[in-house]
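Shapes recur. One chain:

:::
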Amino acid sequence: MLAKLLRELKQGGHRCLIFTQMSKMLDILEVFLSHQKYPYFRLDGSTQIQQRQVLMDRFNADPRVFAFILSTRSGGIGMNLTGADTVIFYDSDWNPTMDAQAQDRCHRIGQTRNVVIYRLISSHTIEENILKKATHKRRLGEMALDEGDFNSKFVEKNNVRELFEGEEALKGIIDNCEVSLNVKDMEKV
């Protein structure tokens, strides 16, 4: 799915930001983009502050750089990336405001094109569960702000508890995953 989407975006002259939660996924995306010969930059928690500004400036100035892969927490706040007109969430954050902040990286002053947001979700996966919980959290926040629209049926005891379960369990699962990917694996994509 991602391969087809990126191919269409590249052919259409678009540039994209690809956000993910995990550095292991950034590693996989980096191998994939290199194999496809897409020029890209990468930003994660290990990127020095001075280097972040350099990458941001170069991405915005150089239309030959097709993609910028970023961890949502490191690249989702305080950056102006109007060189892109497409945001792809490879996976979602448990906190919907983090994803909202990330997509706003190219919705900034100076953006001259319409911005399109894609969220990649597979059925019956952890991602589907994360998106469902994030949607519930966002709706809870909206209800808290819109006092008159509070719906008690939405906020049942089990719903609230479920919203805040699973993050630690998921972290344990992710930490125990081993990623080994090479060019032969990418050729199968």
